[in-house]
């Protein structure tokens, strides 16, 4: 018997009529009543497409049923059903209704014959459950049918509304919709660093046969492993990120949302999704089966999932996920500070690493001095493990501390900007021999707009009660150079780094009354309508200069 779709619908209608007639004309047993109920449910279900992946949306606690029929076109008819939960665990089962060939043949003859068969019970029918599953793993059922049969799939979600994908095929000769997994689908961790993890996995057989249509995609996150790409995408969306449904497959930059970052490097495409719940990375690396994940945080546990993706069908299969914890941050190298010695340190802004200095006190009172040369620096000082100072510094900063002999001080420095920063550091117990000169209340240079002419400008700056040497320098700059000139200025460098032609004058100055400790200077011989940057250097007894904040002034164009 070969059952076509047309003949399938006809017996099904007649079969229902036969059951209804039988229920009226003769007593029914419990098994017969169950059969009629199941048959009614079959009829009111939806037809499941053969050879196509179907997305099914499930409402909480409401079962959903689909059915399909297998024709007896050959001795054995194989079929496979793959169900992929995309979120929470679900329950699903396969039920089969089998009827004898003689019964279906007579059913096609007419209603009278059907009633006769029903009365005599010569054509028993059976409804049985052949498979059921509960969980959130991708599950595949492979079956074989020796005669025509009607199958029903029932799906139920008891946790919340969700969606799943279902793939039915009766054609096992035309290849696989889903890429194949190797016999050992585990991901091996072959290397762990402070910020990297190296992974490897066995090749999918699909890669060996259809290399141009297959690629591997890696998912990295800090929460847990995902059993399917569908489940991963659902979780990413629920965390507040908008993930295009074909992101891992097409990876088109036009699909990216504002909270996504795409990185293309060495034929590898990385998508980084950022949300309050953490960071999720998707990396597709073609057919390479070894990959080192970079830029991870130290001492952090990460979960890794590899999916082999068929680019033609958009279907994927998941390897068995793994996890690894990156190594703890290595103890920073500690540099010993010597009493009275000045060192200059350059801090890497991109890596944001601490630079550590250690000093063992030889006196009860000591003083740390920091001179910021460039950028912004955060200073953290501890004494015997307890914090005694924590501050962002700008310009020149002193920390005078009291303690005991042999107290251990640890100084940690870090750039607070993405660009590099630089700072000079000194620790000393000799307060009477200051390294840096006595500073005024402000290191700003003031210019007087009303006193500007076409060839001169007048500037002023504050002095101190200590007689000191001040040197003034000027430099001509263009309009588009102002920002770069001010940003790149090294506040620790002295006049020795300047060209001789830039020197204007040097003078000594002080005043016992701080309110009158102000000096002015008019710089002549300038060009009209021109920008100049002016610098003042203050020298103390040690000869180490302190640079005032640069001042940009433009001469008048017309006078």
UniProtKB/TrEMBL annotation:
Please give the name of this protein: Protein NDNF
Annotated Gene Ontology cellular component terms: extracellular region
User: What PANTHER family would the database entry show?
Assistant: NEURON-DERIVED NEUROTROPHIC FACTOR, PROTEIN NDNF
Q: Where is the signal peptide?
A: 1-23
Gene3D superfamilies given in the database record: Immunoglobulins
Question: What gene name is listed for this protein?
Answer: Ndnf_0
Q: Mainly localized where?
A: secreted
Q: Which GO terms fall under biological process for this protein?
A: nervous system development
List locations, semicolon-separated.
Secreted
The alphabetical list of record keywords is: Glycoprotein, Neurogenesis, Repeat, Secreted, Signal
Report the function annotation for this chain.
Answer: Secretory protein that plays a role in various cellular processes. Acts as a chemorepellent acting on gonadotropin-releasing hormone (GnRH) expressing neurons regulating their migration to the hypothalamus. Also promotes neuron migration, growth and survival as well as neurite outgrowth and is involved in the development of the olfactory system. May also act through the regulation of growth factors activity and downstream signaling. Also regulates extracellular matrix assembly and cell adhesiveness.
Keyword set includes Secreted: yes
Fibronectin type-III domain location, by residue? 179-316, 437-545
Q: Does the keyword Repeat apply?
A: yes
Molecular function GO terms recorded: heparin binding
By its UniProt entry, which InterPro entries does this protein fall under? Answer: FN3_dom, FN3_sf, Ig-like_fold, NDNF, NDNF_C, NDNF_Fn(III)_1, NDNF_N
